[in-house]
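Now for our specimen.

. . .
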Amino acid sequence: MAFRWIGKSADGKTVTLQRLEGCPVQTPPYATLEWIHNNSDIVRMGVVLDVETTGLNQAEDNIIEIGLRQFIFNRNTGEVLTLANSYSSFQDPGRPLSKEISELTGITDEMVAGQNIDWNAVNAMLEQASVVIAHNARFDRPFIDRKSKVSTEKIWACSLKQIDWSLKGFTSSKLELLNIYHGFFTDSHRAINDVDALLYLLSLPEDGSQKPYLAELLNNARRPMTQVIASSAPFESKDHLKGRGYSWDSINRFWAKIIFKDEVAAEMTWLEDCVYCGPFGGITRDIQLVDGFKA
């Protein structure tokens, strides 16, 4: 599909961006409180979540800000029906923030000093959710799982990996650029702002089908995943593997990636043809839905 820039003017010479105020999700006309009450069998609660942290090391770095927003959706269509509760808080990490983190997020030592996340409040919101959504869940989830047993038992969905943004005409899947491509902007790298931007984005209809982006995300979140491990892959195949989306595990020393289970047969065929030049020499591991994007 050709590159799309929804905020572009009709003559193609300018781009107009609007600041996102709050979370003005697009909802269907039928989504009244009465309809939601009368159709509880297909109505579900979701949570969009984002964290800002002291760094990228999920085992050693700490959360400095969290943002969550609950929303109610139609599980059959993926339409957002209404917003629910939200929560945001700073967290004092107990040590000074690095200059790089402060410059990236705009969060200062003074802002987090003495602040603490109410994990009882976070758990109460997560408990009600049938799905927890993050843009790059592989980053956010391990930080939350360290603090919340409720999180470890939930199905997480990743709007970065489980929506095919490229197929829809977008050259980047970064949230800031997706926002701009859709004609709006917000102060990024602040937790609740990114949460509201993501939920608003997911409520928008995709070109052609006019289904909300959330529909594709929910459908893919329900599909079983499998980790494909290209163990003992020849060294000279590393560029092929990297180009195919495999990541190098420096601890276990193998190339691996996670794909949908129904794509495993085709992936093994590719590995046999392009990597092993013979029978598949790796292994596969099925991943339970609640284990998706865990550390």
Notes: The longest strand covers residues 63-74.
